[in-house]
Design a protein that fits this description.
426 residues, alpha/beta, Adenylosuccinate Synthetase, subunit A, domain 2, Adenylosuccinate Synthetase, Chain A, domain 3, 3 domains, binds guanosine-5'-diphosphate, binds magnesium ion
Length: 426
């Protein structure tokens, strides 16, 4: 059984919390793309955790976690994240964490490149990409230029160190062009030595491990890091991440391109949020935005940045569901809408005087205006509801309406950040 958990919107839909909940029925959780630009907040009986690189299954004692070849891994950040979780009482060992030898290493110079380029863009155009400044775009670029280092190379440092001086020379050509001080071979060696040594025992051929586990009948879950609209091919390029966030990529990014997913569960938020720049048609401004941001606690887990917010966007969500091939939906954060008499939904976009219902190309998106409709709110606290029957009629109507407008079954509804604050809609 292979299930993919993926985001339908712009990210921060609550993927981490759903993986934490649903992984109770799985043996293995794999992250298949992205790096420490992710921020999954998970609240359960063991505490409140923010996961950037580690799969969200790490909080369950009996789940094995895999970091796949599609990931980019900042060694220092991963060591810090492991350390922090251990301090929080979480066990992490080569038994429950396996890192792909083919995963890419994010280098300190990639982080520098990200910062240099965002700052240059800000000055030159006033329109930075809204990057998390954690080196993700530059390290994926290096991967495709075949200049990146892979985790497996940490197992043969003498070969790695032979390759290092030329890469440093090549990278310095770029760094100097930005007017920054060159990096040194010694510093990069120190990075590999200090953090690589700590991670050596976790590095394996995860494909071999996953195929053997699958053959034994183990249940495998793939965890996406960002939403469909941040996908490098299908998202709002260039305001996207630099990896494939969609479910179809999960087996490839996890290390098992030979396997096919059985189920895609899309995580979709009951309203919209978007961190960083780019077109966000349904966006609220002013007081309306402040109210929703406060109610939803919409501040980035990885960066602390206030997230842009808006009502549920049918046009974007339907596109996200198509991209993810979602079989069913987990609708999250419904409780955030408790405080409204009337709830707005963005049902269509208006483009040059015409009403459209398809999600257009990025440049065209900039010209689109939202068309809002209002539905009746429930205006009561639903955070204690645990069964469908506990929900007020208006909340059930809202769920049914989204189901109808988006054309996908809503199987789960979450009404709080805690692990058990979730309703199964059978
Ligand atoms: P992810 O990146 O998709 O894993 O999502 P984030 O963790 O970045 O953002 C989701 C935020 O909403 C986190 O702070 C969660 O603790 C919180 N959250 C998740 N589900 C719910 C819910 O049903 N209700 C409320 N109020 N908060 C939730
Ligand atoms: Mg997040």
């Amino acid at each position: 059984m292979l299930t993919s958990i993926c985001g339908i919107n712009w990210g921060d839909e609550g993927k981490g919390r759903m993986v934490d909940l649903l992984s109770r029925d799985y043996d293995i959780v794999c992250r298949y793309q992205g790096g420490n630009n992710a921020g999954h907040t998970v609240v359960n009986d063991r505490g409140r955790f923010i996961l950037n690189l580690l799969p969200s299954g790490i909080l369950r004692e009996d789940v094995v976690n895999v970091m796949g070849p599609g990931m980019v891994i900042d060694l220092k950040h991963l060591c810090g994240e492991i350390q922090k979780l251990r301090e929080g009482g979480i066990t992490i060992s080569p038994e429950n964490l396996k890192i792909s030898d083919k995963a890419i290493i994010t280098m300190p110079y990639n982080v520098l490149q990200d910062i240099m380029e965002e700052d240059r863009l800000s000055k030159a155009t006033g329109k930075p990409y809204g990057s998390t400044r954690r080196g993700i775009a530059p390290v994926y670029a290096d991967k495709y230029l075949k200049k990146a280092f892979r985790m497996g190379e940490l197992l043969n440092p003498e070969l790695l160190y032979k390759r290092l001086p030329d890469i440093v020379d090549w990278k310095n050509m770029t760094i100097k062009a930005y007017g920054f001080n060159p990096i040194t071979v010694a510093d990069m060696k120190a990075y590999f030595e200090e953090y690589g040594t700590l991670l050596k025992d976790y590095i394996v051929d995860v494909g071999a491990y996953l195929n053997a586990a699958h053959a034994e009948g183990k249940k495998i879950m793939f965890e996406a890091q960002l939403g469909a609209l941040r996908d490098i091919d299908y998202g709002i390029v260039p305001y996207t991440s630099s990896s494939s966030t969609i479910a179809a990529y999960a087996p490839i990014g996890a290390g098992v391109p030979n396997l096919k997913i059985d189920k895609s569960i899309g995580i979709m938020k009951a309203y919209s949020s978007c961190v960083g720049a780019g077109p966000f048609t349904c966006e609220y401004f002013g007081e309306k935005a402040e109210k929703l941001r406060e109610l939803g606690g919409e501040y980035g887990a990885a960066t602390g940045r206030p997230r842009r917010v808006g009502p549920f966007d049918v046009v974007a969500s339907r596109y996200g569901i198509m991209c993810q091939g979602a079989d069913e939906i987990a609708l999250t954060k419904l409780d955030v809408l408790d405080g409204y008499d009337e709830i707005e939904i963005c049902t269509h976009y208006e483009l040059e005087g015409k009403i459209i219902d398809h999600f257009p190309f990025t440049d065209v998106l900039d010209m689109c205006k939202p068309v809002f409709e209002k539905v009746k709110g429930w205006h009561t606290d639903i955070s204690g509801c645990r069964r469908k029957e506990d929900l007020p009629k208006e909340a059930l109507d809202y769920i049914r309406l989204l189901e109808e407008l988006c054309g996908c079954k809503i199987k789960y509804v979450s009404v709080g950040a805690e692990r058990d604050a979730c309703i199964v809609m059978d």
